[in-house]
Amino acid sequence: MENIKPKIDSYFDFIIKTLNNLNRESIIKFTELLLEVYKEGGTIFVFGNGGSGATASHFAGDFVKGVSRGLNKRFKVICLNDNMPALTAVANDISYDDVFVEQLKNFIKKNDLVIGISGSGNSVNIVKAIKYANNISVKTVAFCGFDGGKIKKIANLAIHADINDMETSEDIHLIITHCVKKIIIKETKNRVKD
Question: Is the whole model's pTM more than 0.90, yes or no?
Fold first, then answer.
């Protein structure tokens, strides 16, 4: 058991170093973008695969309840990987590469926001959905790790955890969403009591 503590310290040091290297300006822009979409009455669509899908689902839950509670006007956030019947039908009948873009085609409007989360930045279904949103002039955000992959290059805004490690990228993405959640709760402080 003595050799476990250095491994814990090493992982935590990795997280701290990655956090310290984050581009704070991109997080500021992301926060402002969320508030802009909220003020315009748009819907925020978020999605990912695997651990990134869990982060997308967590983000949606945080905004539907945690951020929106007590607000007369609430945030509209939908996680596309949470609709399993739609996702599996598209995957089975069309292609897994289209599971997010096909759902966006049903719902997306001018003042909306699309957030794709991919540790590698190269998940084909995330790339296709971001490209689709870009093509119809809907704002896009990419959460990515490693070198950022394709989504870093094509999204309007990239939140990039510049680290070659999937777990650390996923950790950083969730930390950022919690940071932004807390900021937005303070920014939307005119709340009614339930």
Answer: yes
